[in-house]
Every structure is written in structure tokens, then in C-alpha cells.
Amino acid sequence: MVGPPGTGKSMLASRLASILPPMTDDQALESAAINSISINGFDLNNWKTRPFRSPHHTASGVALVGGGSNPRPGEISLAHHGVLFLDELTEYERHTLDVLREPLETGRITISRAARQAEFPANFQLIAAMNPCPQGYSCDGKELCQCSSEQQRKHRSRISAPLLDRIDIHIEVPRVSHDLLKETSVNTENSLQVQARVGNAYKRQLDRCGKSNADLSSKEVEKFCALNEAEIKLLDHAMEKLKLSARAYHRILKLARTIADLYKADEINGSHLSEAISYRTLDRLIAS
Fold first, then answer.
1. Long-range pairs for 107-113 at CB < 8 Å and ≥24 separation?
2. What angle do the packed helices 9-19 and 191-209 form, to 10 degrees?
3. Looking at the whole model, is its pTM more than 0.85?
4. Same domain, yes or no, for 269 and 135?
């Protein structure tokens, strides 16, 4: 999420865990087992509660992925089956962020020390938020922004392109007028209603292929995320126009399949695919 301060990025991130499907017994046991060997241990009051971890931007790579002479799980493993929220993303050290690349791909992290090696699960939902420029105001030509183009470029370059390539949805969170804010506070769904829709979409995925769309292999993507000729041309054009990677190609298909599931559609159509592609356009701006 990219937007100026005070637009609700942190609030939106904190609500995500409440709309995820309820944890299964196996997921809850895995989460409890990881927490039981952490410094703080496991709190029984958190049984079957999706983890929400929000480390400070001064956190080190070891704090994120785990480590020590007697390896312990880091924030990414404590967020297993839950949410890892990185606020002020551009304030993290670049090499610290890049340690996330492997676990985002594999869902696991291996920590090797001279005396021993430990492997921890790390299947988490990454949410990140950042300001559009060093000053924090909107950089779309409005009068409040006083940053030069070079300052903006340096600000964005603190995030590596390989990491951005692993984040499926990039959205802008602009300022909202007070009148619109009052209107939306009355005419919106609550978290339980949204969770029900998410749960139905997740059940469709399990019924179709026995796993979530995010966990589909390349061959399974070809089978379950098939496109017709018109959608193939649309995606090919987007790949060339936006200069997207092969990884992004498969991630767009998985996201389009998930959007279709939310609409209870059996096949991916042009609107589902277009929406999935639209979420990848912002990384070209950030990485430029």
C-alpha cells in the first residue's frame, strides 16, 4: 500500500487477519508449536487466532528470519498462517528486506549454524505500507510535495525489484475527503461479512484442487487457471508493456483465479484478468 500519512494503511493492514478464513486445527497446532519455542512462548488465549506480527523498521535480518546460536524462529515464522505487516517499508535496510525473498517463495526458512541447522515454516501473508516520497506527502504533482525527482527515485530504490516481484498486489491509498469518509463509514461491510465471502472463495479453491490458489505449482496453474484466446492476448500484451517477469506471469494468473472465485465464477474472464493485471502496474513506478 502506497499513500501519504494518515490515509488508513496501518488500519487496513491490522484488519486483514480478521477477514482471513478461520484457522484449521492443524494450522492452529503449527502456529502454537512455533510460538512455544519462541522467547515469549504460547498464550492459550491466542488459540486459533491468526497471528499478526508488525516488527519495527529497525529490526535486523536475524529478527525477521530467526537465528542465534540456538536457532529460534523469527518474525516470519511467528507469522506462520497469519500476517506479517511491514510499515514504513522504505525505512528498512534493503539487505534486511531481501532476506524475505526465499521464504516468500518457499514458505520455509532454513537457518544454518556451525553446530546445527534448523528449518522453520514461514507461510505468511506479507502486507507492506510506504509513503510515496521521503517527505510523506503525495507525489502526484500536488502542492504539498516538495521532493525532487531524484529524492523520489532514491526513496523508491530502497526496495529491490526482486522483492517487489514477489508482492502480488500494489495499490495506492489516497487521502479521502471528510464527507466521503462519513458516507463510507455507514455503507460498508463489517469484517464478519467480508470473512464469509473470503471463506466461500477459499472453499471453492479447496474443492477444486485441494489447496489454495497461492500454492499451485506451475503445472497446476496451467490446468486450473486456463485462459481463452482473448485473455491470453491481453496477458501477453500486459507482459510486454509492463516488462513483467515469468514469476509475475504465474502470480497474475493465480490472482485472477482468486478474483474469479470471489465472484463465484467457474472460469477466468477478461474483467478478472484485467483487475489482476492492474494490481501489478504500481511496481513499475516504485522500481523506476
1. 109/65, 109/66, 109/74, 109/76, 109/77, 111/65, 111/66, 111/67, 111/71, 113/67, 113/69, 113/71
2. 50
3. yes
4. no
199, 207 contact by CB (below 8 A): no
N- to C-terminal Cα distance for the chain? 17
- Domain C-terminal end among 162, 181, 200: 181
Residue 2 in domain: no
Tally of domains in the chain: 2
Cβ atoms of 84 and 74 within 8 Å: the answer is: no
Q: Is the dihedral of CA 129, 134, 140, 145 positive or negative?
A: positive
pLDDT tens sequence across 76-120: 999 999 999 999 999 999 889 999 999 999 999 998 877 788 899
Q: Which residue range(s) make up the domain with 208? A: 189-287
159, 161, 163, 168 alpha-carbon torsion, rounded to 10°: 110
Instruction: Report if residue 111 sits inside a domain.
Output: yes
**Residue 194: strand, helix, or coil:** helix
Residue 19, domain CATH: 3.40.50.300
Q: Are residues 18 and 90 in the same domain?
A: yes
Among 244, 192, 213, residue whose Cα is nearest residue 15: 192
CA distance 107 to 130: 24
> Any residues with CB less than 8 A from the CB of 27 and at least 6 apart, and which?
81
